[in-house]
Amino acid sequence: MTKSQRKKLNRAKNIRKQTNVERNQQQKVVTRKATNIMDHIMNTVGLHENEFIAHDCILCGQRINKIHNSHNPYPVAGIHIKLHSAKNENGKEAPIRCCTKCNENKVLPARMNSLYMNAA
C-alpha cells in the first residue's frame, strides 16, 4: 500500500469514527426526550415507587397499592391533568387518582369521546 493510499484509508476511518460519535450523541438525545415524554404522560416525574403512599380510587373506592396502578381521572373527575400528578397527590388525605380498572373502563373512553367531540 502506498503512502497516499494509507492517508486516504486513515482519513476515511477518522470520518467514519466522527460520524459514529455524532450518531451516538443524537441517539442519546432522542432517548432522553422519549423518556421525558413518557414521564410526563405517566405523571410520575420525581416520584419513586418506594415513596408512593397507598390510597383509595376516587371513582370506585378500590385500594391502590402501587404507583403504576394510580392514574389521573381527568375528565371524569373534572380536574386538570397537570395539577393533579401522582407526585402532587401523593400523601394527601383524599388524593384525586383512580385505579387501573376505572382508568380503562371510564376515564379513557371519556377522553376519547372528548377528543371526538372537539374534532367535530
Task: Map the helices and strands.
Layout: H1 3-42, E1 55-56, E2 63-64, H2 86-89, H3 100-119
Textual characterization of the structure:
53% of the residues lie in helices and 3% in strands. It is built from three helices and two strands; from the N terminus they run H-E-E-H-H. The longest helix is centred in the N-terminal third of the chain and has 40 residues, at 3-42. It has two domains: 1-42; 49-119, no CATH class.
Number of domains: 2
Contiguous helical run count? 3
The amount of beta strand, in percent, is: under 5%
Low-confidence stretches: none
Helix content: 40-55%
Helices and strands, in order, run as HEEHH
What is the global morphology? elongated
Strand order of the largest sheet: 1-2
Class computed from helices, strands and strand pairing: mainly alpha
Calculate Rg over CA atoms: 24 Å
Major β-sheet, in short? Answer: 2 strands, antiparallel
According to DSSP, the number of beta strands is 2
Q: What is the arithmetic mean of pLDDT?
A: 79
What is the CA–CA distance across the termini? 70 Å
Give keywords.
about 120 residues; mainly alpha; single chain; two-stranded antiparallel sheet; elongated; about 55% helix
Short summary:
With 120 residues, this protein is mainly α. 53% of the residues lie in helices and 3% in strands.
